[in-house]
Specification:
Helix 4 packs parallel to helix 5, helix 7 (175-181) crosses helix 13 and helix 9 (192-213) packs across helix 13 (292-298). It is built from 16 helices and 13 strands. The two termini are 25 Å apart. It has a 6-stranded mixed beta sheet, with helices on both faces. Strands 2-3-4-1-5 form a 5-stranded parallel beta sheet, with helices on both faces. Strands 6-7 form a two-stranded antiparallel sheet. It is globular, with a radius of gyration of 22 Å. It is of the alpha/beta class.
């Protein structure tokens, strides 16, 4: 198995006597990671198997019976349920079993959608569970094709923990490759000729199966039109009215569809920064697909480097935003914002963490200039006590000081 950054944290937390909920989009490697970390005698219930799922839906008592069959004298026997959200009654059974004997079982429930659980008011085991999220690969897991500059300082570092080194890192990749195919583990590990087909399958087979199985959308055709538009507009400020008009569904339905993408972990919204004295700030969020390869396929494009070359700057900006967002989720502290005024002044990303703000602009340029830093400098001047330094993430070969408060940072040093 390829090395995952979260593996060490997850392995340590699995020793704790709680129920463990592991969520994330499909194909992010949740099941693969858990099967590698859990002991071989683990009781595995795979609800992605239609036969197994039907059996548990028809008889909710099957799960409890299977758990009680495990040796009573042994403590901490792992029970792993994959795609647990497809049988919500299992959460109630887990609570009943756990409350009856906290030491006998160690439940690990894995899922790729929170929508059905929320709609049915499923029991998410408050006070009894640890919550984990797994994301597509980060730069530390999927390294660049060139070495990091030793003296470069990242605005949001995510490194291997002390004493940890990747035993089997994912293949290194250049920036065009990762902008074209994204960071899903299975896609990154696949041969390049197979990657586009894998991504198309994700966008149209997995998403359709998930949505149809949970009866989340009544008009599948309208949702497909919406998803293509949402993917095409990924990384942009959301225009609900325009997408409603083009997709042929109402604005409330458009907003519901966006929430559905979030609940299925295939997208996230980036709120507008509001802590500013400027009265011309836009307050509308941006929306990002969680992976660029999936974004291309969902937009109806064939993921290839040629697709990226049509508009590389926009895709590069999305990649940086997704990378920062994943890091913040793993680190468990801080938020990511965007800033834009009505007259067009913009800061692509603002990291709010530890009481401080870090503005970041993204440029496709190999030779950034002080002119590229003007919006970052304006933000720093506006927030002198909270924002000490800003960055231009670009394709330069080594860090460059554009201003005493602004550093141009190579993407592979992020």
């Amino acid at each position: 198995m390829f090395s995952r950054w979260y593996a060490g944290t997850l392995q340590e937390k699995l020793t704790r006597p709680f129920v463990h909920l592991v969520f994330g989009a499909r194909q992010t490697g949740k099941s693969t990671l858990l099967r590698a970390l859990l002991p071989p005698e683990t009781l595995v219930i795979d609800l992605a198997d239609p036969h197994e799922r039907s059996r548990h839906l028809a008889d909710p008592g099957v799960f409890s019976k299977a758990c009680r069959q495990l040796p009573a004298g042994r403590k901490g026997h792992f029970v792993f349920v994959d795609e647990a959200q497809s049988v919500p009654s299992i959460f109630d059974a887990v609570q009943h079993l756990y409350d009856g004997d906290k030491a006998r079982w160690r439940f690990v429930l894995c899922g790729s959608s929170a929508r059905k659980l929320r709609r049915m008011g499923a029991n998410l085991l408050p006070g009894r569970s640890f919550y984990h999220r797994l994301f597509p690969l980060t730069l530390v897991e999927h390294p660049a094709d060139q070495p990091r500059v030793s003296y470069a300082v990242s605005p949001l570092a995510l490194d291997w923990k002390a004493g940890e080194k990747p035993k089997r890192p994912f293949p290194a990749a250049d920036v065009l490759t990762r902008l074209a195919y994204g960071e899903l583990p299975g896609v990154v590990a696949a041969d390049e000729p197979d990657r586009a087909e894998l991504l198309r399958a994700f966008a149209f087979v997995h998403l359709e199966e998930e949505i149809r199985r949970e009866a989340l959308v009544k008009d599948w055709g309208a949702f497909v039109r919406f998803m293509q538009l949402a993917a095409s507009e990924s990384g942009q400020i959301v225009n609900f009215a325009a997408i409603s008009q083009e997709s042929g569904v109402s604005q409330p339905t458009v907003k519901s569809h966006y929430q559905l993408l979030e609940d299925m972990f295939v997208g996230f919204r980036l709120e507008a920064f509001s802590r500013s004295s400027r009265k011309t700030l836009l307050s509308t969020p941006k929306f990002f697909f969680f992976d660029l390869g999936v974004r291309h396929a969902a937009a109806g494009l064939t993921p290839t480097p040629d697709v990226v070359k049509v508009n590389p700057g926009a895709f590069f900006e999305q990649w940086v935003g997704i990378e920062l967002w994943k890091r913040l989720q793993y680190l468990g502290e801080g938020k990511l914002y965007h800033l834009r005024t009505k007259d067009g002044a913009e800061v692509d990303f603002i990291i709010a963490r530890g009481g401080m703000l870090t503005p970041i602009e993204v440029k496709w340029s190999e030779n950034p200039s002080a002119q590229d830093a003007r919006h970052v400098l304006a933000f720093l001047a506006e927030h002198p006590k909270l924002a000490a330094h800003g960055y231009i993430v670009c394709r330069c070969q080594r860090p460059m000081q554009l201003h005493e408060k602004v550093t141009a940072l190579p993407w592979f040093c992020l």
